[in-house]
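Review form for a predicted model. The reviewer records the input and the model, then writes brief findings.
Reviewer: anonymous (R2)
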Amino acid sequence: MIKILFYVIISVSSVFGYFTLPGKCPENVKLQEDFRLAEFYGKWYQAYHYSSDGRNNNNCSTINLITKPTGVYFNQSRVDRGLFHRYSIGKFEIPINIEEAAKLDVTFVWDNAPRRLKTRRYNFHVLATNNNYYATAYTCQYSPLIDKHFIYVWILSRNIILNDVSKELAIKPLQQIGVTAANLVKDDLSKCTPKYYEDISVEPTTFRYPVPI
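Model under review:
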Protein backbone atom coordinates (compact mmCIF):
# COMPACT_ATOMS: atom_id res chain seq x y z
CA MET A 1 0.00 0.00 0.00
CA ILE A 2 2.81 2.40 0.92
CA LYS A 3 4.60 1.54 -2.34
CA ILE A 4 1.49 2.32 -4.38
CA LEU A 5 0.95 5.60 -2.54
CA PHE A 6 4.57 6.58 -3.17
CA TYR A 7 4.16 5.86 -6.89
CA VAL A 8 1.00 7.97 -7.07
CA ILE A 9 2.69 10.91 -5.30
CA ILE A 10 5.70 10.78 -7.63
CA SER A 11 3.42 10.50 -10.67
CA VAL A 12 1.33 13.53 -9.69
CA SER A 13 4.47 15.55 -8.93
CA SER A 14 5.86 14.69 -12.37
CA VAL A 15 2.67 15.80 -14.10
CA PHE A 16 2.79 19.16 -12.35
CA GLY A 17 6.46 19.45 -13.30
CA TYR A 18 6.19 19.33 -17.07
CA PHE A 19 2.57 20.16 -17.93
CA THR A 20 2.99 23.92 -17.59
CA LEU A 21 0.72 25.55 -20.18
CA PRO A 22 -2.91 26.20 -19.17
CA GLY A 23 -5.84 24.51 -20.88
CA LYS A 24 -6.01 22.05 -23.74
CA CYS A 25 -3.69 21.72 -26.74
CA PRO A 26 -4.08 24.32 -29.53
CA GLU A 27 -6.98 23.53 -31.84
CA ASN A 28 -7.57 23.99 -35.59
CA VAL A 29 -3.83 23.92 -36.31
CA LYS A 30 -3.07 23.89 -40.05
CA LEU A 31 -0.52 21.21 -40.90
CA GLN A 32 1.58 20.61 -43.99
CA GLU A 33 -0.61 20.03 -47.03
CA ASP A 34 0.14 17.16 -49.43
CA PHE A 35 2.53 15.63 -46.93
CA ARG A 36 4.25 12.48 -48.22
CA LEU A 37 5.98 10.31 -45.67
CA ALA A 38 8.16 8.67 -48.35
CA GLU A 39 9.84 12.02 -49.00
CA PHE A 40 10.33 12.60 -45.28
CA TYR A 41 12.46 9.47 -44.87
CA GLY A 42 16.08 9.60 -43.78
CA LYS A 43 18.05 11.58 -41.24
CA TRP A 44 17.10 14.97 -39.81
CA TYR A 45 19.22 17.10 -37.48
CA GLN A 46 17.48 19.05 -34.74
CA ALA A 47 18.65 22.62 -35.36
CA TYR A 48 16.36 24.33 -32.84
CA HIS A 49 13.80 23.15 -30.34
CA TYR A 50 11.28 24.40 -27.82
CA SER A 51 10.15 22.59 -24.70
CA SER A 52 7.31 24.23 -22.79
CA ASP A 53 8.61 22.87 -19.48
CA GLY A 54 11.94 24.64 -20.02
CA ARG A 55 14.07 21.52 -19.88
CA ASN A 56 17.01 21.49 -22.27
CA ASN A 57 19.12 18.52 -21.27
CA ASN A 58 19.65 17.09 -24.75
CA ASN A 59 21.87 18.26 -27.58
CA CYS A 60 23.17 16.87 -30.89
CA SER A 61 19.71 15.39 -31.46
CA THR A 62 18.73 13.63 -34.66
CA ILE A 63 15.61 11.96 -35.98
CA ASN A 64 15.86 9.11 -38.43
CA LEU A 65 12.95 7.38 -40.15
CA ILE A 66 13.73 3.75 -40.82
CA THR A 67 11.82 0.86 -42.36
CA LYS A 68 11.56 -2.58 -40.81
CA PRO A 69 9.52 -5.60 -41.90
CA THR A 70 6.98 -4.64 -39.24
CA GLY A 71 6.54 -1.01 -40.34
CA VAL A 72 8.02 2.48 -40.29
CA TYR A 73 9.92 3.51 -37.20
CA PHE A 74 10.93 6.79 -35.59
CA ASN A 75 14.46 6.68 -34.14
CA GLN A 76 15.38 9.67 -31.99
CA SER A 77 19.05 9.86 -31.00
CA ARG A 78 20.58 12.48 -28.70
CA VAL A 79 23.36 13.29 -26.25
CA ASP A 80 22.02 13.74 -22.74
CA ARG A 81 23.79 16.40 -20.64
CA GLY A 82 26.87 16.01 -22.83
CA LEU A 83 27.59 12.62 -21.25
CA PHE A 84 25.23 9.91 -22.46
CA HIS A 85 24.33 8.90 -25.99
CA ARG A 86 20.74 7.68 -25.86
CA TYR A 87 18.05 6.75 -28.34
CA SER A 88 14.32 6.05 -28.43
CA ILE A 89 12.57 3.98 -31.09
CA GLY A 90 8.84 4.11 -31.72
CA LYS A 91 6.59 2.84 -34.49
CA PHE A 92 4.74 5.28 -36.72
CA GLU A 93 1.03 4.84 -37.18
CA ILE A 94 0.34 6.08 -40.69
CA PRO A 95 -3.00 7.89 -41.20
CA ILE A 96 -5.50 6.21 -43.50
CA ASN A 97 -6.82 9.46 -44.98
CA ILE A 98 -4.39 11.32 -47.22
CA GLU A 99 -5.86 14.61 -45.99
CA GLU A 100 -4.47 13.79 -42.53
CA ALA A 101 -1.09 12.51 -43.71
CA ALA A 102 0.83 15.04 -41.57
CA LYS A 103 -0.98 13.86 -38.39
CA LEU A 104 1.43 11.11 -37.52
CA ASP A 105 1.35 9.16 -34.27
CA VAL A 106 4.28 7.30 -32.79
CA THR A 107 3.94 4.39 -30.35
CA PHE A 108 6.63 3.39 -27.87
CA VAL A 109 6.57 0.06 -26.03
CA TRP A 110 8.37 -0.40 -22.71
CA ASP A 111 8.39 -4.02 -21.60
CA ASN A 112 9.63 -3.28 -18.08
CA ALA A 113 7.11 -0.51 -17.33
CA PRO A 114 3.94 -0.98 -15.25
CA ARG A 115 1.18 -2.62 -17.31
CA ARG A 116 -0.82 0.55 -17.99
CA LEU A 117 2.32 2.38 -19.13
CA LYS A 118 3.85 -0.32 -21.32
CA THR A 119 2.41 1.14 -24.52
CA ARG A 120 2.42 4.91 -24.97
CA ARG A 121 1.07 6.71 -27.99
CA TYR A 122 2.00 10.28 -28.88
CA ASN A 123 1.28 12.64 -31.73
CA PHE A 124 3.99 13.89 -34.09
CA HIS A 125 2.44 16.56 -36.29
CA VAL A 126 4.30 18.11 -39.21
CA LEU A 127 3.55 21.81 -39.49
CA ALA A 128 5.75 22.52 -42.50
CA THR A 129 8.50 20.94 -44.61
CA ASN A 130 10.01 21.00 -48.08
CA ASN A 131 11.63 17.61 -47.34
CA ASN A 132 15.03 18.71 -48.70
CA TYR A 133 16.12 21.42 -46.25
CA TYR A 134 13.80 22.00 -43.30
CA ALA A 135 10.89 20.58 -41.35
CA THR A 136 8.82 21.84 -38.42
CA ALA A 137 7.05 19.33 -36.20
CA TYR A 138 5.52 19.36 -32.76
CA THR A 139 3.88 17.17 -30.19
CA CYS A 140 1.28 18.23 -27.65
CA GLN A 141 -0.09 16.24 -24.72
CA TYR A 142 -2.90 17.32 -22.45
CA SER A 143 -3.39 16.34 -18.81
CA PRO A 144 -7.05 16.52 -17.73
CA LEU A 145 -5.78 15.82 -14.22
CA ILE A 146 -4.55 19.42 -13.91
CA ASP A 147 -6.06 20.97 -17.10
CA LYS A 148 -2.67 21.82 -18.58
CA HIS A 149 -0.69 20.78 -21.63
CA PHE A 150 2.89 20.22 -22.76
CA ILE A 151 4.40 21.15 -26.15
CA TYR A 152 7.69 20.16 -27.74
CA VAL A 153 8.79 21.63 -31.08
CA TRP A 154 11.40 20.31 -33.48
CA ILE A 155 12.98 22.61 -36.08
CA LEU A 156 14.74 20.06 -38.25
CA SER A 157 17.39 20.34 -40.93
CA ARG A 158 18.72 17.91 -43.50
CA ASN A 159 22.16 19.43 -42.85
CA ILE A 160 23.88 20.01 -39.53
CA ILE A 161 23.47 23.77 -39.98
CA LEU A 162 20.09 25.21 -41.00
CA ASN A 163 20.36 28.10 -43.47
CA ASP A 164 18.66 31.41 -42.68
CA VAL A 165 16.01 31.19 -45.41
CA SER A 166 14.94 27.72 -44.31
CA LYS A 167 14.89 28.85 -40.68
CA GLU A 168 12.46 31.66 -41.46
CA LEU A 169 10.16 29.28 -43.35
CA ALA A 170 10.34 26.74 -40.53
CA ILE A 171 9.47 29.28 -37.84
CA LYS A 172 6.55 30.89 -39.67
CA PRO A 173 3.84 28.29 -38.80
CA LEU A 174 4.72 28.22 -35.10
CA GLN A 175 2.47 31.17 -34.34
CA GLN A 176 -0.48 28.76 -34.60
CA ILE A 177 0.65 27.01 -31.42
CA GLY A 178 1.79 30.12 -29.58
CA VAL A 179 5.54 29.69 -30.09
CA THR A 180 7.80 32.48 -31.37
CA ALA A 181 11.40 32.61 -32.59
CA ALA A 182 12.41 33.98 -29.18
CA ASN A 183 11.18 30.75 -27.56
CA LEU A 184 13.47 28.53 -29.62
CA VAL A 185 16.72 27.09 -28.29
CA LYS A 186 19.56 26.34 -30.69
CA ASP A 187 21.03 22.88 -30.40
CA ASP A 188 24.46 22.84 -28.77
CA LEU A 189 26.90 21.10 -31.12
CA SER A 190 29.94 21.50 -28.87
CA LYS A 191 29.30 18.34 -26.84
CA CYS A 192 28.55 15.70 -29.45
CA THR A 193 31.12 13.15 -28.24
CA PRO A 194 29.58 11.48 -25.19
CA LYS A 195 31.51 9.44 -22.65
CA TYR A 196 28.87 6.72 -22.36
CA TYR A 197 26.53 4.91 -24.76
CA GLU A 198 23.20 3.33 -23.90
CA ASP A 199 22.81 -0.04 -25.62
CA ILE A 200 19.04 -0.20 -25.12
CA SER A 201 16.24 2.14 -26.09
CA VAL A 202 15.26 4.55 -23.31
CA GLU A 203 12.30 6.81 -22.69
CA PRO A 204 12.21 9.95 -24.87
CA THR A 205 12.34 13.26 -23.07
CA THR A 206 10.66 15.12 -25.92
CA PHE A 207 7.37 13.32 -25.23
CA ARG A 208 5.42 13.66 -22.00
CA TYR A 209 2.33 11.86 -20.79
CA PRO A 210 -0.33 12.38 -18.15
CA VAL A 211 -0.10 9.50 -15.72
CA PRO A 212 -3.49 7.74 -15.43
CA ILE A 213 -4.57 7.59 -11.78
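Findings: Residues 1-15 have pLDDT under 50 and may be disordered.
Further findings: The chain has one domain: 2-197.
Recommendation: see findings above.
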